[in-house]
Amino acid sequence: MTAPMDVARQIADAVLYEGYLLYPYRASARKNQVRWQWGVLVPPAYASAGHGEHAASHSECLLEPGTDPVLHLRLRFLQLQHRSGGDGLVPEFDEAVEHEVDAVLPVSELVDTKQVVPVTIPGGTETTDGITRERWPLHGEVRVSAQVLEGPYGVMKVTVELVNTAQWDDPQASRNLALRHSLIAAHIVLAVTDGEFISLLDPPEWAKPAVESCRNERIWPVMVGEAGSRDALLISPIILYDYPQIAPESAGELYDGTEIDEILTLRTMTLTDEEKAEARATDERARKLMDRVDSMPPEMLDKLHGAIRYLGETPGTRKEPDPVETITTPGTPWWDPGADASVNPDTDSVTIAGIEVAKGSKVLLKPGSRRADAQDMFLEGRTATVEAVLLDVDGNTHVAVTIDDDPGAEISSAHGRFRYFDPEELRPLGAQS
Length: 433
Known about the structure:
The protein is α+β, with helices and mostly antiparallel strands. It has two domains: 2-301, no CATH class; 337-428, Roll (SH3 type barrels). Helices cover 18% and strands 32% of the residues. The longest helix has 15 residues, at 2-16. The protein starts with a helix and ends in a 5-residue tail after the last strand.
């Protein structure tokens, strides 16, 4: 069952290292002294002391079983490793060591019972070239069970609990000490043979009552793999949509999925040589990031500039818009209206209530009830002059107007400051109501 696991790995790696280091990637930065915000499961004694941390996560998902379904489970997490010593710029830093625990679980052995997958990770100390790295032992369990739901569809609810079972007992210790005994960025990849999972985000109508009965705490299952496939889930501490993907333009991990790669890369390029030297000394992953940014060719940076995508689409099902003929002007920047000679706000028009409306037309304002701008609602029934008819990149038409009885209309027009309405919110003067 390696294929679904391998497909999920790229997304799972992004979850594993989300927030591992943040710009400017230096240990001295305050944001890099308070770390490990996702999927942290602390020892039970520390969780019970009321620090706002938790020792367990709970997930439920739905499975349409075949004749003899088998679950393939892979738990992934980080173990804190404290680095000290040496004569570098950063004498101490908390690194991380990746761990995976695999299990194969026949679903028939999970029905109305609970199978426990033990998690035991040893500690240890290593010293090389004057640098000491120390790890502390970790203990936990993955508890998996299944239940056949009532109804004609034969659906099963699969429950996965991940629990830190460490006996470490120092409830008033600092969070940094508790993290030494914690599962960090913990998440699970769950695949099935001879069966299919049901999306909790976009279930079929008949499955919605069962979906509503599922309970997920501090972790959330989403479909992974090729769009439409149903044999693998990523149970993640970060809420994602089904079939998440890494942007193909992304040249490498920046450890902050909420940032825009281009902006973050450009900001990293502006770091001084001294700041980059400290980042390289902070962590091996930061060193590789700095090296990648410093050596990035211009064409790679250009790829980060932008791409248009459509959220929620299923490949092959989105209806393409009718082609629009464009006449480009060579050498003109894409953002300049002169780049496309097929559009001209001064001469373009739109038909409203059977009347052609263009620059200079008089219209009555009838803002729609869907608009949230109260200022526009106050303009109900006012007359205005059309200043331009505009077409955006999605093919939507917008009409720019100035208010006729506005004493500042002439100045607004001179400065290109207009009010914008959809054609459906305008009524040409003289048109029948």
